[in-house]
Write a structure and sequence with these properties.
mainly alpha
Length: 84
């Protein structure tokens, strides 16, 4: 588990599906893949099919659109008032 996910409150982010635990890659597998690619002299490694699909999906899309979509996904959710 990384510190990032320990500090994220999914309820505070629109589309909290992005942060669900079952959708995350196992940190050990990611670390192992990183070590293996480094020992082969490589620079990058994308782990997981959904991550690979996201990378491929980004290629034909303008960066401004990718930035706008990312901003929308990560924007704080509206505060729900408990006073009614």
């Amino acid at each position: 588990m990384t510190a990032f996910f320990n500090n994220v409150d999914p309820q505070q982010i629109d589309g909290d599906h992005f942060f669900r635990k079952e959708g995350r890659s196992d940190p050990r597998k990611v670390a192992q893949a990183g070590v293996e690619v480094m020992t082969r002299g490589g620079l990058t490694q994308v782990v997981g099919m959904s991550n690979r699909l996201m990378i491929l999906g980004n290629r034909p899309v303008p960066r401004t659109m990718v930035a706008a979509i990312t901003k929308r996904m990560l924007r704080p959710a509206p505060v729900k008032s408990s006073m009614i």
